[in-house]
Design goal:
Chain A contains 18 helices and 7 strands. In chain A, α16 links the parallel β6 and β7. The model of chain A has no long low-confidence stretch (mean pLDDT about 90). In chain B, about 65% of the residues lie in helices and about 0% in strands. Chain B contains 7 helices and no strands. The longest helix of chain B has 21 residues. The radius of gyration of chain B is 18 Å and the shape is globular. The chains are: A alpha/beta (about 400), B mainly alpha (about 170). At the A-B interface, α1, α2, α3, β1 and α4 of A face α1, α2, α4, α5 and α6 of B.
Chain lengths: ~400, ~170
């Protein structure tokens, strides 16, 4: 499951990967004609829409790939870098760059590419870029407040617009295909030497239909995580799939015994977890089960994963989700956490069952109550305070 | 001679695959302006270390436990871009020291505007936290709000001012 940084690929090796990706990036940019400022500037004057075609095709290809890899569980889309939004700085910065584009005929990536094949104007552009960054930094106090204004964090565009990711992807693809068609008509009228005059119309129409179909697939494809959670929550699914249950006394015994091959996974919300949690338990949401980070924890086969929630039914859903994700040896706690609390932790009167073991069970529960209470108290000072280290990938310009 | 460029849709598809590979393998997209910043940081740190370390903007990039800015992902990626573009120019016979300008623009004027354009891009990319590749293209690929806003702002403003500067290009 991607990404391979930082687990499989080290920071050092990542720099080698950067070099290789850069070589491919530079090669494709140059082959596309992005080493020519006249060609780049053409997008603003209607005589050459190469920039628009390459840029939007690339954005749609990569976006589609990310959506598909995420859907099939091959890429952990919660870990990849999503550049955070500072709304007004992005608008103003983009506007400044837009003027720079028209004046300079390049953007930073393309200027570096053009410099490599000997364009003198591109070398001046790169030099200007260095001066621009320097000047920005020296005058920073002037706009320091503005620089940090309207921070929205790593916002997703479809959430900002209040629509689904799939629908947004379809709209973007449809807009791009429309833009490709319209700009080709404009370009053929404005520029008699246009490259687009050589395009095979039938092939391009076919490609357009193909990508629009892909866009429709995105609309239909449910979001993988939500879809899986809703599948296992379905009453029919729960009724037809069995889940093993761990009796209350067994769990209490294993806790008191500090048995290492038991992992308690508490799926209640963090507020409730912080108020009362079983010793050594891990607080994960159903969404966390999909994360690459919890893979190592949950995939230890010989360890019994005991799911804990307010109700046994919720525990069963969590167990079924783990099973669907390929994790083994998962059990639900009998009766949910409230029953465990009532039976073991609270000193309620022992209810006799008529069994000849009654007196043993009674004395065990009394021992367990004291021991587990001690462990919970000890845990409050140590283990509970270990905050999970965020393993986010840094990126951006 | 002018060797033909690749079909733009094919080039775009390949560029998208490169970007997707970067996201899939490393978890992050492509970029360019970040490397420009790293070069600036290193240069001014070599010239005036104390000034830089106390600078409200540049200072945050230096300090205990921080590696040299040149040892960054984007610097290596941009070195790759130089190599890759050079190879492409070599195989397509486009290696030539030349100044490219609009039909009515003398080389020296072109240099001046290229310098100015580069400076605006360098400063603008700081506000937007990235340029056309790092913020707009890579941001769009991961459906980041910032990516779309930056893209719209760059191209929207470009079209808005294109008429004023038309003599530079047509």
């Amino acid at each position: 499951m991607g990404p391979f940084v930082p687990d499989i690929i080290s920071d050092q090796l990542n720099l080698v990967v950067a070099l290789i990706i850069g070589i491919a990036f530079g090669f494709v940019l140059e082959q596309a004609g992005f080493s020519s400022s006249r060609r780049l500037a053409g997008v603003f004057y209607g005589y050459d829409f190469t920039v628009l075609r390459v840029f939007f095709t690339a954005a749609i290809t990569a976006m589609s790939g990310v959506l598909l890899l995420g859907y099939f569980g091959l890429l952990d889309t919660d870990v990849i870098y999503v550049n955070p939004t500072w709304l007004w700085p992005a608008v103003v910065g983009g506007a400044i760059m837009g003027i720079g584009f028209v004046l300079g005929g390049y953007c930073p990536g393309t200027s570096i590419c053009a410099m490599a094949i000997g364009k003198v104007d591109a070398t001046f552009f790169v030099g200007g870029g260095l001066l621009g960054v320097f000047a920005f930094g020296e005058m920073f106090p002037l706009y320091k407040d503005f620089f940090n204004t309207t921070a929205l964090g790593p916002a997703k565009v479809f959430d900002s617009l209040g629509i689904s990711g799939g629908l947004f992807a379809f709209i973007l693809i449809a807009v791009a295909v429309l833009a490709f068609a319209v700009t080709t008509i404009i370009e053929r009228k404005v520029n008699s030497a246009s490259l687009s005059r050589e395009f095979s119309l039938s092939k391009h129409r076919l490609a357009a239909i193909g990508v629009l179909a892909l866009g429709l697939v995105f609309v239909i494809l449910p979001e993988r995580k939500a879809h899986m959670i809703s599948t296992v929550s379905n009453a029919n699914y729960v009724a037809t799939h069995s889940v093993k249950v761990m009796p209350i006394d067994e769990l209490a015994f294993r806790i008191v015994d500090m048995e290492p091959n038991v992992l308690i996974v508490d799926v209640r919300n963090p507020d409730r977890f912080n108020k009362l949690a079983l010793p050594g338990s891990h607080n994960l949401s159903l969404h966390d089960f999909f994360s690459k980070d919890n893979n190592a924890l949950l995939s230890q086969r010989h360890v019994k994963k005991v799911l804990v929630a307010d109700e046994e039914a919720q525990e069963k859903v969590a167990c079924l989700l783990l099973q669907k994700l390929g994790y083994e040896n998962v059990l639900a706690l009998e009766g949910g956490l409230p029953r465990f609390k009532e039976t073991i932790l609270d000193s309620t009167a022992f209810v006799t069952t008529g069994s000849r073991w009654d007196s043993d069970v009674k004395s065990f529960r009394e021992t367990a109550r004291v021991e587990i209470a001690k462990m919970i108290e000890a845990g409050k000072h140590t283990a509970a305070k270990t905050v999970k280290a965020e393993k986010k990938i840094t990126g951006g310009c | 001679m002018n060797t033909k460029y690749m079909n733009p849709y094919l080039a775009g598809f390949l560029l998208g695959i490169v970007l997707l590979a970067a996201i899939f393998v490393t978890g992050r997209g492509l970029g360019a302006s970040g490397a420009v910043k790293d070069v600036v940081l290193t240069t001014i740190h070599a010239v005036a270390p104390t000034h830089v370390e106390h600078s409200p903007f540049f200072g945050s990039y230096f300090g205990a436990g921080k590696e040299s800015p040149l040892k960054s992902w984007l610097v290596f990626e941009v070195i790759g871009v130089l190599i890759g573009a050079f190879i492409s120019g070599l195989v397509s016979d486009r290696l030539k020291v030349v100044t490219e300008a609009g039909p009515r623009v003398a080389p020296k004027l072109r240099w001046l505007f290229a310098l100015l354009g580069g400076a605006l891009f360098g400063a603008g990319a700081q506000f937007a936290r990235g340029c056309t590749s790092g913020a707009a293209l890579s941001g769009m690929a991961v459906l980041s709000t910032a990516g779309f806003i930056t893209m719209l702002a760059i191209f929207g403003t470009g079209y808005a001012v294109a008429f004023i500067f038309r003599k530079l290009w047509i």
